[in-house]
Specification:
Layout (H helix, E strand, L loop, with lengths): L2 H26 L7 H27 L6 H14 L5 H25 L3 H17 L2 H6 L3
Helix pairs in contact: 1-2, 1-3, 2-5, 4-5
This protein binds fe (ii) ion (2 copies).
Length: about 140
């Protein structure tokens, strides 16, 4: 497996993981602010969709079906529960920072140039990841 293939697989796993994590947080903190739970769960659904996009791309590119969807989602949920003692603000800061670095990485890949089919994938998910990077400030910012 070359570096690119490994990256696509890892992206698929991370997206599925994030779906599980956002889903648990959305349920745990649904009353933190009006619509807050729904907002997190909506972000989770976007991650799920991203995961499916990476899986589809992987299948087309390598003719291999990635099968770890359920496992990665379960792991994301497990981590969500394990993080229960951590204050929400810390968790969201961590998540937002991570989303921001994902967005920067994607922007760099797009600028550097990638295969046109992969470019479509990256351009599709970038606006969502940028939106996710604002989750912390939406919840705890001064706005
Ligand atoms: Fe994503
Ligand atoms: Fe995201």
């Amino acid at each position: 497996m070359d570096k690119f293939q490994a990256e696509v697989r890892s992206n698929f796993r991370t997206e599925m993981f994030a779906f599980g994590l956002y889903t648990v947080l959305g349920n745990q903190y649904k009353n933190f602010k009006p619509n807050f739970g729904e907002h997190l769960k909506e972000a989770g659904k976007q991650e799920h969709m991203h995961g499916r996009i990476f899986r589809q791309f992987y299948k087309k590119q390598y003719n291999i079906e990635l099968k770890e969807e359920k496992l990665c989602i379960a792991f994301g949920k497990l981590v969500g529960y394990a993080l229960t003692p951590i204050p929400l603000s810390k968790k969201l800061k961590m998540i937002s920072d991570n989303e921001a670095s994902v967005a920067v990485k994607i922007e760099k890949q797009i600028a550097d140039g990638v295969h046109k089919d992969y470019l479509k994938v990256l351009e599709r998910i970038l606006p969502d990841e940028i939106a996710h990077s604002k989750i912390y400030s939406e919840a705890f910012g001064d706005n």
